[in-house]
């Protein structure tokens, strides 16, 4: 948005399905748009006669989740009223759901549109498919429904690939995946970006080692990753660390299983915070123990921009142009992950080197200025 309003007249449409009380966004940024419309709506529940099998599965077949997530016709007309009859040189939809909502809107509101672009952010069907191996908490029938949803999502993605002029992705990994589907749309790589902090304290040794995890904690991959780290990896680090280890977990809406991690001692779960910057500045090592998902992890780019060394899984760093052992540390097995963390803990020089090279990577490829130029060129 910052890039778009610099060089274009932007009409913003937001259909917000969050619970009441969510932040409405950057007021200064919204004020620079030509017009803004924000409409709240709720996803429709699955209308099964009973929760007993096979009724939820039948309900999913006849009333798919991808359709239940769409706003009502009244919501659509209200949201798009301010662009009715205007000539739009391009429409940029954020995420697959945004594209589905826009296509639905075109069926009922006359819109004069030039290019149609969707920013996938990640490949949702790939993320859903990977999640099937980890999220098995709801029984056999729910696993069937999850697979149905994954197929629905894949079909919706393929419709975008066939009907949109361009699809944006945030990594070359995702770009190759979509090109393998032989799309009509042009597939363009627009990386995620961060604003470079002007200052960041130099890493130093302290009486205790401060580990940091940042992420929305209702998001399955983040929830799984931090619980896995605390149960499988952190105890190994504590046994061999020459200094006391403290872990801070920062993120909105921590579920009970994440809040319960505090009982282990030396773990703090903050919940939502106004700014993550102070937590990055006070950390020694930022961890990204992510085992599934798609797209690229902003938390890694943020940590690097603050000159903090990152310890990640390979999938956690997927899609980011990193060099393991140079500007990031990567391990997938609990023993190896713990050993790499201990290597950083014991070697201040290595922590500083990894942090400095990570910052250089952000400056060269992932700063907001670099990505803003790519966005406006692609538009």
Task: Outline the structure in words.
This protein has 379 residues and is an alpha/beta fold. The chain has helices at 2-7, 27-31, 55-62, 65-68, 73-80, 95-106, 124-131, 139-163, 172-179, 220-240, 256-259, 277-281, 298-305, 334-346, 348-366, 368-378; strands at 11-16, 35-40, 87-94, 112-119, 166-169, 186-189, 208-214, 244-250, 267-271, 285-288, 310-312, 329-330. It has two domains: 2-190, Rossmann fold (3-Layer(aba) Sandwich), CATH 3.40.50; 208-367, Rossmann fold. The chain is built from 16 helices and twelve strands. The strands form three sheets. It has a six-stranded parallel beta sheet, with helices on both faces. Strands 3-4-5-6 form a four-stranded parallel beta sheet. α3 (55-62) runs parallel beside α8 and α13 (298-305) crosses α15 (348-366). The protein is globular. The model has no long low-confidence stretch (mean pLDDT 93).
Bin the helical content. Answer: 40-55%
Alpha-carbon Rg, integer: 22 Å
CATH topology of the largest domain: Rossmann fold
Helical run tally: 16
The amount of beta strand, in percent, is 15-25%
Cα distance spanning the termini: 12 Å
Q: Can you summarize the main beta sheet?
A: 6 strands, parallel
How would you spell out the order of helices and strands? HEHEHHHEHEHHEHEEHEHEHEHEEHHH
* Class computed from helices, strands and strand pairing: alpha/beta
Poorly predicted regions: none
In short:
The protein folds into two domains: 2-190, Rossmann fold (3-Layer(aba) Sandwich), CATH 3.40.50; 208-367, Glycogen Phosphorylase B (Rossmann fold). It is built from 16 helices and twelve strands. The protein has helices at residues 2-7, 27-31, 55-62, 65-68, 73-80, 95-106, 124-131, 139-163, 172-179, 220-240, 256-259, 277-281, 298-305, 334-346, 348-366, 368-378, and strands at 11-16, 35-40, 87-94, 112-119, 166-169, 186-189, 208-214, 244-250, 267-271, 285-288, 310-312, 329-330.
């Amino acid at each position: 948005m910052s890039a778009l309003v610099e060089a274009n007249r932007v009409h913003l449409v937001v259909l917000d399905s969050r619970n009441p009380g969510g932040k409405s966004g950057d007021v200064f940024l919204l004020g620079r748009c030509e017009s803004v419309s924000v409409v709240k709506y709720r996803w429709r529940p699955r209308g099964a006669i009973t929760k007993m099998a096979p009724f939820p599965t039948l309900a999913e077949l006849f009333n798919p989740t991808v359709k239940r997530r769409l706003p009502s016709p009244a919501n659509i007309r209200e949201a798009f009223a301010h662009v009715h009859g205007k000539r739009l040189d391009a429409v940029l939809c954020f995420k697959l759901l945004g594209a589905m909502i826009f296509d639905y809107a075109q069926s009922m509101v006359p819109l004069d549109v030039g290019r149609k672009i969707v920013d996938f952010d990640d490949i949702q069907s790939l993320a859903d498919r990977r999640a099937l191996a980890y999220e098995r908490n709801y029984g056999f029938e729910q696993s069937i429904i999850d697979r149905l949803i994954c197929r629905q999502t894949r079909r919706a993605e393929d419709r975008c690939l066939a009907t949109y002029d361009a699809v944006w992705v945030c990594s070359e990994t995702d770009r190759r995946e979509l090109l393998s589907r032989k799309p009509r749309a042009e597939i363009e790589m627009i990386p995620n970006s961060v604003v470079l902090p002007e200052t960041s304290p130099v890493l130093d040794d302290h009486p205790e080692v401060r580990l940091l995890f940042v992420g929305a904690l209702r998001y399955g991959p983040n929830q799984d990753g931090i619980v896995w780290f605390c149960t499988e990896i952190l105890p190994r680090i504590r046994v061999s660390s020459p200094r006391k280890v403290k872990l801070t977990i920062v993120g909105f809406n921590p579920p009970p299983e994440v809040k319960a991690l505090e009982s282990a001692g030396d773990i703090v779960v903050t919940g939502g915070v106004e700014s993550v910057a102070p937590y990055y500045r006070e950390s020694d090592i930022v961890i990204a123990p992510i085992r599934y998902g798609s797209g690229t992890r902003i938390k890694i780019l943020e940590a690097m921009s603050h000159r903090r060394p990152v310890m990640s899984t390979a999938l956690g760093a997927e899609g980011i142009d990193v060099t393991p052992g140079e500007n990031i540390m990567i391990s997938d097995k609990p023993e190896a992950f713990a050993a790499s963390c201990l290597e950083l803990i014991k070697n201040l020089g290595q922590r500083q080197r990894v942090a400095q090279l990570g910052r250089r990577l952000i400056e060269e490829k992932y700063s907001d200025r670099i990505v803003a130029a790519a966005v406006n060129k692609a538009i």
